[in-house]
Amino acid sequence: MRLWVDPKKCFGHALCLEGTEDLFGWDDETNKAVANEGEVPPDREAKAMEAVRCCPEQAIVLLDS
Known about the structure:
By secondary structure, this protein is an alpha+beta fold. 15% of the residues lie in helices and 25% in strands. It has 1 helix and 4 strands. It has a two-stranded antiparallel sheet with strand order 1-4. Strands 2-3 form a two-stranded antiparallel ribbon.
């Protein structure tokens, strides 16, 4: 599983960054969250799904690898 943040939907609330620095980063140029590249580790999948659920703009997408 991989994560993707839709830059057109992200409004920069940064809720996804809470406790997920290994899954998400911050783009200072656009003031929006970005998903870190690579696979989500199996032990972090629950946290990734929580970030998807918590995004008020529904900008985070889980992708099958």
